[in-house]
Amino acid sequence: MNPYEMQRARIVRIYRLTDDVKFFQVRPYMGTEVCELNYRPGQFMMISLPGIGEAPFSISSTPSRPGLYEFCIRKVGRLTEKIFELKENAVIWLRGPYGNGFPVEQMEGHDLLIIMGGLGAAPLRSLLLYALDNRELFGKIYLLHGARTPDDMLFREEFLELMHRDDLVCLLTVDRDDTGRWPAYTGVVTELFRYVKGIDPKNTYAAVCGPPVMYKFVVEKLVELQIPKNQILMTLERRMKCGIGKCGHCAIEYIYTCLDGPVFTYWDVLHMKELI
Question: What is the CATH number of the domain that holds 11?
Fold first, then answer.
């Protein structure tokens, strides 16, 4: 596939997740033929509106549920403001998928710790759903998800339903609950580590995504658990623009976030702290 070529796509569903984040389900097509969707959790797409602009967005869906791409989009600028104005059945343009994604084949047979905060739920939802759809390929699964308030939690209702499943441990927390009706934990996301029990650190992969301030404290907890540094995976975005390593906006020395990432190990971050 030509990496510069855009695919025409149709928005088939839109709903609001928070005050400034919407969820989009998108179906690409070429004439009457539906495009084959071949990607891995952790990859991203370039979304463009002609005459407005283009930007990278993490894929929130999983390749184990074919037919649609799903995106969480926060309204932060001119392009996203225009995307927010679109209605169902509107046409957008896609390039990709790009990036390395999570090494799901290497992660098979291991326990998974998935730690997300804020908009970090967008790429990690893809990995979580992939693991749940292929449940027999993985060991224990822990989901740790933090948000400022219940209203700020992406996929809140979806993840609250996961708390009732017996094939994973779903731990949700908010910094503050003013309603008195929040059914899970209150506190910062690192406090959830006290409920992580019985994992074999050498047989565990951790995946982390969230605000920059979160990484330091979450990684400290993972290191305390003695999870190997090459098995601590972080999905990071750093000024990505073209998606294919041509513009140089996301370069750090010889590393291009859009090509060599956006998924990096803790070893990568130790050697290039500018990644965060």
Answer: 2.40.30.10
